[in-house]
């Protein structure tokens, strides 16, 4: 019997959360069997929860039927292994976001993660209108705002503070591009909001960050959780070597795949997940480039040579 899922709030939202990748068939349809297996694989790793959507989860490639199927599978499988779920509901309009929230609520989502509509840049009043309207649809289900430059704008700290004061179910943010100075500026305006980055726990947690929405968990979730736990416990001296290894892995092994080979995040996250033992495959939805088995082999070889302490158990 699975453990009861604790409600998420501004006080309880924390930890290392893992991004979920969708396995596609050769016809670019969801492979439900492999996806269920992938979700369950994070049970027992120590991650605080899992989430869908975003770039890693290729939300932009999901039609309504796929979104609904993904949502029901992840809620059922993750809850069965004791993990809470954030459902990504980013879309180009309030109406579409609200419709996807209805699917998520029916499936039992523990929270919604959502970026601003991104085809036309929103003005401040439109940002507030959007968040207010989707919060009304979400009801008691909490909302996490994904603050990304891909939405053509960020929400300034002062506006975030206004929204936090007016929308109590807005409990946190995801902003992987936020530096420590920016983190402190957000917390000055919205001191109880749970601010998340990526895997940069070593820098962000001492400054008030609460955790990270991570893709590197795909390679080795246990090690990412270990880094988070050390930083959350204030054991920065012990955490430093591991933080430096992850920094090197990110900047020397992954980012060159962007700069030198033109791969997007979705392809790179698949490469490291397959290297980490996942069953998602390297296939991205067209028209975006996919990685290859050769990329997977090169990543494993690089890690074995340069950061062997990060190798997952099946490769160590």
Question: What does it look like?
Answer:
The chain is α/β, with parallel strands linked by helices and 316 residues long. It has a domain of 220 residues: Aldolase class I (TIM Barrel, Alpha-Beta Barrel). The chain contains eleven helices and eight strands. The two termini are 32 Å apart.
Supply the CATH class of the domain at 15-234: Alpha Beta
Tell me the series of helices and strands, N- to C-terminal: EHEHEHEHEHEHEHEHHHH
Number of helical elements: 11
Residue ranges: pLDDT <50 for 5 or more in a row?
none
Q: Within the CATH hierarchy, at the fold level, what is the topology of the domain at 15-234?
A: TIM Barrel
What is the rounded Rg?
18 Å
Average pLDDT, all residues: 96
Total DSSP E strands: 8
CATH architectural category of the domain at 15-234: Alpha-Beta Barrel
Strand content: 5-15%
> What spatial form do the alpha-carbon principal axes imply?
globular
CATH superfamily of the domain at 15-234: Aldolase class I
Major pleated sheet? 8 strands, parallel, barrel
Distance between the termini: 32 Å
Task: Chart the SSEs and their pairings.
Blueprint: E1 15-19, H1 32-40, E2 49-51, H2 64-80, E3 85-88, H3 94-107, E4 111-115, H4 124-138, E5 143-146, H5 157-166, E6 170-174, H6 180-189, E7 194-197, H7 201-204, E8 211-214, H8 217-232, H9 236-259, H10 265-275, H11 293-306
Parallel strand pairs: 1-2, 1-8, 2-3, 3-4, 4-5, 5-6, 6-7, 7-8
Quick summary:
This protein is α/β, with parallel strands linked by helices and 316 residues long. Helices cover 46% and strands 11% of the residues.
């Amino acid at each position: 019997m699975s453990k009861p899922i604790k409600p998420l709030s501004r006080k309880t939202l924390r930890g290392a959360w893992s991004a979920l990748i969708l396995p596609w068939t050769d016809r670019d349809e969801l492979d439900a069997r492999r996806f269920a297996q992938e979700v369950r694989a994070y049970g027992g790793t120590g991650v605080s929860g899992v989430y869908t959507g975003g770039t890693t989860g290729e939300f932009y490639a999901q039609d309504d039927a796929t979104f609904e199927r993904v949502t029901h599978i992840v809620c059922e499988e993750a809850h069965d292994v004791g993990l809470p779920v954030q459902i990504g509901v980013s879309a180009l309009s309030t109406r579409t976001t609200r419709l996807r929230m209805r699917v998520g609520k029916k499936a039992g989502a523990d929270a919604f993660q959502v970026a601003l509509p991104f085809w036309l840049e929103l003005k401040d009043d439109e940002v507030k209108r959007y968040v207010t309207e989707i919060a009304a649809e979400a009801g008691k289900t909490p909302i996490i705002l994904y603050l990304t430059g891909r939405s053509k704008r960020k929400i300034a700290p002062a506006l975030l503070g206004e929204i936090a004061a007016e929308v109590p179910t807005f409990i946190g943010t995801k902003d992987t591009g936020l530096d420590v100075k920016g983190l402190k500026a957000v917390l000055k305006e919205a001191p109880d909001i749970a601010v998340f980055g990526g895997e940069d726990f070593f820098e962000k947690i001492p400054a008030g960050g609460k955790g990270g929405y991570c893709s590197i968990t795909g390679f080795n979730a246990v090690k990412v959780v270990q880094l988070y736990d050390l930083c959350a416990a204030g054991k920065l001296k012990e955490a430093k070597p591991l933080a430096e290894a992850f920094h090197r892995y990110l900047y020397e092994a992954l980012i060159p795949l962007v700069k030198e080979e033109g791969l997007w995040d979705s392809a790179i996250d698949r490469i490291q997940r397959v290297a980490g033992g996942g069953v998602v495959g390297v296939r991205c939805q067209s028209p975006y480039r996919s990685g290859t088995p050769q990329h997977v082999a090169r990543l494993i070889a690089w890690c074995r040579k340069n950061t062997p302490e990060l190798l997952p158990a099946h490769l160590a």
